[in-house]
Amino acid sequence: MNNLKRLGLLAGILILLSTLMACPSEEGSDADLADDSGNLKFSWYVGYDWWSPPNAWGVDVVSAWLKENKKVDIEWVSPSGSGGDKLNLMIATGDLTDVICLDRGAKVASLIDAGLLLPLDPYLDSMPNLKKYVGTVNLELLRYKDGKLYQFPNWYISPDATSGNGNAGWAINTKVYKELGSPSIGTYDELEAYLEKVAAKFPDMVPLEVGDGFQAKTLVFRGMGEQLFSYMDNLLGTPKDGKFTKMFKDPNVRDTFSYLSRLMRKGLMTQDVFAQTRDQVMEKLVNGQIAVVTSWDFGNMIKSANDNNKIDVNLYDVIAPPHRAGIDGEQVTLAGYATLGWNVNVFTKNAEPRIKEILAYLDWSTGEEGQRALVYGPKGFFWDEMDENGIPYWNAKYENASDQERQQSRIFNWNWVGNTSWVDKTKVAANLRLPADKRDKMVEWQGRVLWKYVRNENEFAYDKPDPASDLGQVNTIIADFYDQALADALFASSDAEVIKILDQTQEEMDKEGYQKFLDYHNNEWSKRKALLQSLAEKAN
């Protein structure tokens, strides 16, 4: 197994090996991906602190099927709790895995500049699925400044998609909601009134849970206007009339901080907002101690709370996002997506002897046949037939399986070249075919509510300043000011004090070179929009 056994990179990357590139059809078809020498073996490093292989390769039904039928044998390398440190060690020692999954941006650039990665251009015509599903626009956006393509994306979205993925949302405790008369909570004024009723009738309950890391700050901001994105906390500036402007002078930002401060003063939201852990939030959810919750991660929080609570079968249910009165609630943005997806896989020079075979496997994996195997499992396990669109029908074994049995099957766990547009379309359709009591609640929420409020953010998906540069250091300083202003404003004694805090913070930020920081964003944003326009014109 080649040297790449510890790489710490950040991102998630999976899908692996396979030989024989032979004459691939448009779908890569059922071609055997191994050559005469036997199994394709390669190593894959997923550089996120939180990730580790769910089990040894070949133990679960999915990886066992891939090992036997596609002749791939993957050595998954765990970051052991520190993805960045492990990757740096791998680079320093030259002990790199064949494939590395990490975030786009500075780290990928540093690997390219160091001459450690292989460009994919010589093999691009042999990857029909990559070209078809990732698409020309995305492939061009992924090219490095030298004009070469080094990155194979994960959980990418078709460039012409009208909606994207996302798990951010709002949910209510249905038991409490019914006891309080099921009032309207569509606007922020109505939400505040409802939280006051909760506090009065259920004094031991948390009226509004804001999540670990204070997730509510961004989600509340997004509801202050139509089609607002996450630039407040991600880019530390807010656009107006085509240019990034001073964040704390933006009325939507000021109203967001004032609203959250007022909820804190009234005791209507989590009081230990900056200290609580994810486990503590989950404990409150499972015990039914929360009336309303907003979160980026419904899949692993709200659904898990429903699965594990002892109070009601489906204690929590998703709702449309509350928003400022007077705006079109259908135009609120819960989450943004870039069609480039979550992260990327890159290929080190250690992989050169088997790069064709590795790419053949990944190309097969990201196509419909590979995604079916990785998302639904092999035919005959949880599905036996599929419709004319290639969407499987879940079988009785799947219907009657417990959540634990479904999780232990590892379907979905090995998909590190996720084809979002295909997977999302098919999983919603497949889920709706099941009896109501057998459906995956998260998938139902996504199709019914969450994805209606997700917008394309490609124009903002450009790289931030290099952390080591002067502007990168300004970025760090501005981020610190932002965090401090949020904490100070949250515990302010009045709305007037909130505004005073924001004004004073803005003055301090200006002294630290904030305008140069905004100029950088304006320049990068302008270039990004011009590039997107150019690619769109070429596509037409």
Features:
15 strands; 20 helices; 12% strand; 540 residues; 4-stranded mixed β-sheet; alpha/beta; 5-stranded mixed β-sheet; disordered N terminus
Structure overview:
There is one protein chain. The protein is α/β, with parallel strands linked by helices and 540 residues long. 41% of the residues lie in helices and 12% in strands. The protein has 20 helices and 15 strands. The protein has helices at 61-69, 83-93, 106-113, 128-142, 174-179, 188-201, 216-222, 231-234, 251-265, 278-286, 302-308, 355-366, 368-376, 396-400, 403-408, 420-432, 441-448, 470-490, 495-511, 514-539; strands at 40-46, 72-77, 99-102, 152-154, 169-173, 206-209, 238-240, 243-245, 290-295, 316-319, 335-337, 343-347, 383-386, 392-394, 454-456. The strands form 5 sheets. The chain has a 5-stranded mixed sheet. A 4-stranded mixed sheet has the order 6-9-5-10.
| Spatial strand sequence of the major β-sheet | 2-1-3-12-4
As residue ranges, the low-confidence spans are: 1-32
Helix content: 40-55%
The proportion of strand residues reads 5-15%
Shape: globular
Q: What does the radius of gyration come to?
A: 24 Å
Number of H/I helices? 20
Number of strands: 15
Q: Report the major sheet.
A: 5 strands, mixed
Task: Give me a quick take on this structure.
The chain is 41% helix and 12% strand.
Write the layout of secondary structure elements.
Layout: E1 40-46, H1 61-69, E2 72-77, H2 83-93, E3 99-102, H3 106-113, H4 128-142, E4 152-154, E5 169-173, H5 174-179, H6 188-201, E6 206-209, H7 216-222, H8 231-234, E7 238-240, E8 243-245, H9 251-265, H10 278-286, E9 290-295, H11 302-308, E10 316-319, E11 335-337, E12 343-347, H12 355-366, H13 368-376, E13 383-386, E14 392-394, H14 396-400, H15 403-408, H16 420-432, H17 441-448, E15 454-456, H18 470-490, H19 495-511, H20 514-539
